[in-house]
Amino acid sequence: MSAAQEHPQAMTCSACHERLTTYYSAGEYIIVCPACREQILASEANRSATGRFFRAVLFGASAAIAGASAWYALTKSIGWGSLGVAIAVGLVVGAWKLKRHAPIDLRGPFTR
């Protein structure tokens, strides 16, 4: 069975749906062609720095509050200390990544 038969979505651009010869990763599930990559980068560059900053602060603060709330609830309900919860969360995330056979990519977006 060829790769095109196994994963037909992986052979097309997520934005324009053209067949790919070279590609860039724009996230874990988004693969784009070079032309669409340039459009994505151009649209990001056209946003104001102030708007991007406040959007990042809003989403970052929301994620921090949600994470801290979940962490507090987990440590209080289980009765473990923070170290035990940290180890457990790390093991669960690691097992999830291994189960999906997805390597952890530390190179960042748009590089593949």
What does this structure look like?
The structure is a single chain. By secondary structure, the chain is mainly alpha-helical. It has a domain at 1-46. It is 57% helix and 4% strand. The chain contains four helices and two strands. It has helices at residues 3-6, 34-45, 49-78, 82-99; strands at residues 24-25, 31-32. The protein has a two-stranded antiparallel sheet with strand order 1-2. Strand 1 (24-25) and strand 2 (31-32) form a beta hairpin. The chain is flat, with a radius of gyration of 19 Å. The two termini are 24 Å apart. The model is unreliable at 1-6 (pLDDT under 50).
What's the Cα radius of gyration?
19 Å
How much of the residues is beta strand, in percent?
A: under 5%
The neighbouring-strand order within the major sheet is: 1-2
Task: Let me know the number of strands.
Answer: 2
Sheet with the most strands?
2 strands, antiparallel
Give the SSE layout.
Elements: H1 3-6, E1 24-25, E2 31-32, H2 34-45, H3 49-78, H4 82-99
List keywords for this structure.
single chain, two-stranded antiparallel sheet, disordered N terminus, mainly alpha, 112 residues, 4 helices, flat
